Structure formats: structure tokens, C-alpha cells
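The instructor's notes for this session suggest beginning with a concrete chain rather than abstract definitions. Hand out the sequence below and ask the class to guess, before any prediction is shown, which regions might be ordered.
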Amino acid sequence: MIQSAAIYFAVAWAVVEVTVTVVEQLFLPQWVSTVTVSAFVMGFPVAMFLAWTFDLTAEGLERTVVSSRRGKATIVAALLLLVAGTAGLFFLIRPGLESNVEQARAVSVLPNSIAVLPFENTGQDLEDAYLSDGLSDELRDQLSRVPGVRVAARSSSIAARRQGLGAQGASEKLGVATLVEGSMRRQGSRLRISVQLIEGRTGLALWSETYERSPAELVKIQEEIVRAVAGLVLPEGDHELGHPATLDASAHELMLLARYYEQRVRDRETVDVNLLVQAVDLYRQATAADPASALAHARLGAALLYLGDVDGAEAPIFKALALDPALSEVQNTVGLYYWARGLPAAGPAFERAVALSSNNVDALHNYAEWHWFQYDRGGLPELLERAVALDPLSLSRHAALGEYYGKEGQVDKVRAIIGDVKELFDGVESYRLVGHLQALMGNVDEAIAWTLRARDAEPDNPDHRGRLAELYAILGDFETTLALEPEPSLGLLFLMRRYQQLIDLAELLMIEYPDDISVRHLLAFAYHATGDHPAAIRILSMTGQPDIMLNNTTRTIGDQLGFFTLIDALAAAGEKETARMLAEAVDRFHTGYNTSWWYHFHIGCTTALLGRTEVSLDRFALIKDSPELPWESLLRDSYCVQRLAEDPVYQDVLRHTEARRQALRERLPATLAAHKVAL
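After discussion, reveal the predicted structure:
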């Protein structure tokens, strides 16, 4: 019996291992592995019964004869134990099986949805990677222009491949029903392209094809693949297929190489200007090879905008618009151009881009960001949610959504986003994002712990130390702030309310970095806080205030700080009428920050300047409900609070804020210990 059991387990283990490997490599349904394991579990008592009942002798199998009553009782007892043990094993693995079933049911997969995974370059020349990458990018773009098809974004498709996800795993993570994957190899003057359409639920190939053509026929191959895939994803009728970027073979290859270089630049944290210039030159050659390609002109314009050449981008962008205004990518690039110019037409262009293609995740993101800067919350979260749904493995999409809900004070939704980030990502950038979102919820101790995790994972990056110093400054622990940054930045000096040091440093930095507007904003506040209001007004006028807030569509947080500092400084300097005029324009800039301390503070500040003290105090009282910790420098050192300084409501806000800081400082050691990190 023992020998038979050992042999059974050895054979079962070997067969299961082989089955699992074959299922993964051949993209067979997962239930094949499950059935194999279940069969061996249920077959175990049968095998043991046969081993007990029969003996293997030199004459062959012979039935075991048991004559004694004790022997028969032993057989019955053994069989009962065997059945009980097998049943126990089944119930042991049952929760795992049920969990897998429930997890599979929970996956949200939309019909007619697809992801194009990066094609593999199987040739010997690594330089041919631009062809395989370019083909997958162009297929994705062309399929995204087919009405009724939902296409996962590029960055998430690449992330799924880099994570080594199989077909079923990629389908679940990306939320798509089908996947396109393939390979490309250049052999002399021939291309060999293998492609298949895979059903995500089962991992089975629904369609596959191999093409052996010359590189000049790559555009034709691309169209054939799109036509075949669209026909399988949308089998109900005729489809309006999106056109390729160009039909000219030479222009097509130039655009593939240009896009390959451009994406390499965009995927990095630091911009490789030389590589971007090469991409621009290749796009120019593509527009010369095919002057009628709207996408060639649009991509040239987008690359020039990314390079910072707004003037140079104008001609190709409007050429693209004249050639084909019905392309989402063209409208998105037009929106970027208008935004770079600070023109209000950016919003309608982004809106048009989203309407033309619901798959254009960049347009969704840009349109949402445009709404954000216009203080228009109508439809903004829906745009960000759609961007995350199309690009679920992009950390930046989750960051944008988390930033919005964090600023809106929707703590439960921020917690959910943090959970998603923890589940989907693991690395320095995700640690920093979790820390940032925790700070938006007011959990500065958790923010410090996650930032320490980022620092420990990347100890040579000084940005982590700077962020830690900032968080300790927000907590009011200036001793630790200075220990981390003995030569504090302007932002740290602002948070610590060390205005004379800020003035001395900022005046030097203005000479070294004359175009850095943020330096002027902080310097102006420091002058204002120390009583030199005319100097603050003069410096802010040099930044374009108040026009930049009243007439520009790309207002930054620094612009907002400068604008409100200007109103406060004008009032303090005795220019009451000008301050009043600007204060009355404030409401149009903050329609939506319903729980943000920033919103309540500035509305309270401007209404105080307008003499509406009761309304002002009501606004200040609401600061206590904000999850994020307010800045002490604004709460205590703005001119507008002077008339409220002795009021019980205002004093209660100050006490409440300091009590929160004290509580966070007290619980910080336990939080760091729980995360197993230390400063």
C-alpha cells in the first residue's frame, strides 16, 4: 500500500507539472489543469482500493484473500480513513478553487474590447525593434479608430508584456476580451510576420496568420490584419476601418522610426534632446515623402511641442488640421498647441478629440486636465475614470485620478485608488504616489513611511530626502526638516515661515534662474508677510499677474498663490478698490473645491477683505473638515486674517490644526515601526 501510494503521488505530480507547463505555453484553457488535479485527487481512493484488493505477483494480478474477521474489519476501517482523508484534501483545496472562480467572475471585461501587445522582434538585428514596435503601435491606433471597438492604451499593453503576463492574465489586468500578439523577423529583403488573435477568457487562439512579404508591403499587411481582427471582434456586420497613417511605404517606415525614437524619449524621466531632434527630423522627412498624411504632420507638430518649439509646431499642426480635422490625434495635438499658447480654444479641441475617438486616452487625460485648470468639475472625474479603464497599468493615470479625489476630499475613493496602486504596481514611483495620496488624506505619518520605503529602494535619489523634509515641515518638526536639508529650499523656508532667509535666497536665485516664476511667487509672499507690500506687488506684476489668472487657461498652483498674494498685498498697501475688484473675481476660479482647505481659506480671505466677516468666518470654520493639513504660513501670515486674529472661530481653526499636527507627530514612531522603516 505504501509503495503504491508513493508511486501514485510521483506519477500524479509529474503529470500535473507537465500539464500546467503545456497549458501555459499553448494558451490552453485553465480548466485543463484544474480537471487534471481534480482527477488525481478523486482517483486516489480508487487506486488505493485496487492496491489493497490485488497483489502483483510473478503470475500476474491476484486478488488478496482475507479470511479473518479482524482482517476484514481492518480493510473496512482503512477504506473509511482513505475516503475521509481524500474528502478532507478536497475540502482543503476547495476554498482556493472557489476563490479562483470568484476572482474570474469579478474581472470586468467589456465585449468588443481588445489589447494589442508589443510584437516581438525575433530577428538577429536589434535595430529592427522599431519595425515590430511600430507595427503594434500602428495596429493599435488603427483599431482604435474602428467605431465600437474598445482598445487598451499603449502604456498598459507594454506593461502587461513586461510583466510577463500570459494571455489570461493580460486579459484580466487590462479588462479586455481579446488580445493581438505576434512577432516580426527581417530576413534580408523579406519580413516574416506572425500574428494571432487570442480569446482572453480561455487563452485559445481565435485566428492566426503568417505573412512573408517585402518591407515595402508593411502598410498592406497592417491593413489586412486590422480588417481580419475587426471582423472577428465585431462580427455583426460591416465596419468602417480606420485608415493607416500613410499609404506611402517610405513615409511609413520613416514614421515608424521617428515614433520609436519619440516614445523612447517620452518613456524616460529625463528628456534626451538629441534623440528627440532625430525624431523631429525623421517626421519632417515623412511629411516630405507623403505631404497628404495628416498624421505625419500632426506627429511632427506634437514632437516639436514636446521639444518646446511652439512657433515651429504651428505650421505642421494646422496643416494636419486642414488635411483631416476628423482625426482624434490631430485634434488632440491642436489642443496641445492652443494650451501651450494659453488660449481658451484648447478645451474645445480636446473635447472634439474625445468625441472622435473614445479610445484616445491622451485626449481624455488632457481634456480632464484642462477642466481642472478651468475650475470646471463638470464631467472631470468621468474623464479620468475612463482614462484609467483604458490604461489600467499606467501609474500616471491612477495618480491623476487620486490627485483629483484627494483635492476634492473624497477619502474613500482615494483609499480605493491606493489599494489599486498597491495591487498593480511595486516600485519607487508607486511608493511615492501612495505617500502623496496619504498626505492628501491628512495621513502625513503614513506619507513619511511610504516615502522612506521609496528612499530605501533608491537611496541615491536626493528627491526622496527633499520630500521627507517637506513632510516633516508640514508636521511642524522643523528640527528634522533641517537635519534632512541643512540648506533648505525656498519651499521649505516658506513652510517653516522663515521669510528673511527665503528673501535672501530667492533674490540670488532670481539672478541665476530669471525665468523661474515660482521663485518670484514665493519671494513676493515673503515680502508681503514681512510687511514690504509694494515690493510684493512689483514682483508679482513682473510675473504677469493678475492677467495670467484672469485671461490665461494654463494656471498653475504657483499662479494661484501669486494671484491671491497680489489681492492680499494690494489691500495691505491701501489699494482697496483694486483689491476689491480682483477679490470679486475669485468665485469663478474655485467652483468645485468643496472640501479643500485651499478653497475655504481663499474664499474666507477674500470675503474678509470685502468686509463680509460672517461669511469669512463660516469659510474658515470649514477648514477643519479638510482631510489635508493646511499650510501654517497662509493661515497665520496673510494680511486678510489680521482683522480675524482674535475671533474665537479663527482661533479654533488654529488650535484644531495644531492638535492634528501634534497627534500625527505622536503616532509617527508607531507608524514607522509598523512599516519597518526608520529615518
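Then share the key points. Residues 23-29, 96-107 have pLDDT under 50 and may be disordered. Residues 69-106 form the longest helix (38 residues).
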